[in-house]
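Here is a complete protein record:
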Amino acid sequence: MRNLDINSILIRCPNWVGDLVMATPALRAVRSRFPNAHITVVVKKSVKEVIQGLDLFNEIVEFDPKDKDKGWVGLIKFSKKLAHRKWDLALILPNSIGAAFMAYFAKAKRRVGFDLNHRGFLLTHPLSYPSNGDGPLPTVEGYLHLCCFLGCENISTKYQLSLLKHTEDKVKKLFKEKGLSRKEKYLLMIPGASYGSSKCWPPDYFAKVADHIEVEFGLKVVIAPGPNEEDIAFRIKENMKREPFIFVDPILSLEELKAVIKRSSLVVTNDTGPRHIAVAFERPLIVLMGPSDPRYTSVNLSHTIVLRYPTKCSPCNLKQCPGTHECMRGISPHAVIDAAHRLIYSYGL
């Protein structure tokens, strides 16, 4: 699709934190290809803060599928409101049929996306999903494949995030309230996973790593649970010999979490959305991965060590483990401490 008169673009963004971070190279590619177009991104309300502050689009429109835009009726009403505007192009990054229906009901002139989940009839340009031999394609490369079809050039897989002007000052205040000096360096632990408990490393393992790194490297320990994950953070605290700093009551917003991750010296996390925020800010990162297929996220790993324990049943992609959770319990605290040594000696503190 070259030499097109494109003035208005609608981009339906992914719904998950990690997928949205992985979509930022595609947003950058589209902005570069169509520098004068008005680009509107449709983003689920709960993850909007992930891409706030970026200059890759002109406008964010919130989609709230858990409340006012719930169900098919809500989706259709939302999409028809979009139809009041003229869209020369809609780029549909999620592979769901609902995302394609949104662009269809918005009456976008050109609708580009992958021909998956029986939705090809809703697209003007249904593309076959690219092959990667005998394994899955990294998610970011799938998004960029769509961009190549649009004529985007000089494409990079590098993630891009930004902070709003007031955020870092707000986080400095939060740290002060916790008794943590802004000059103190810290290990950040993200022990939850909104996907499900199958992705969670045991709290007592986190505690062993925290105690060791605090003693050996003098890093303070900061724990940042997500919504409804406070119990995990407190279980880590109960198993620690030293007192960690825990961000609860309230839980950090995604915008605040970005700032906390950006300031950290080392991040240890389950395979969950915030890991990709750490990648975007090039923080030394240890990812504890069990039920997921690592090939979907096998890019931008220069500052990252991904730890896995091989089992016959992994990757299973189940939300809860029906067995002994061997894929996560098999990752020892010693392996994480060893990975921390390697990162700290490579990148410093």
Observations:
- The CA atoms of residues 174 and 316 lie 39 Å apart.
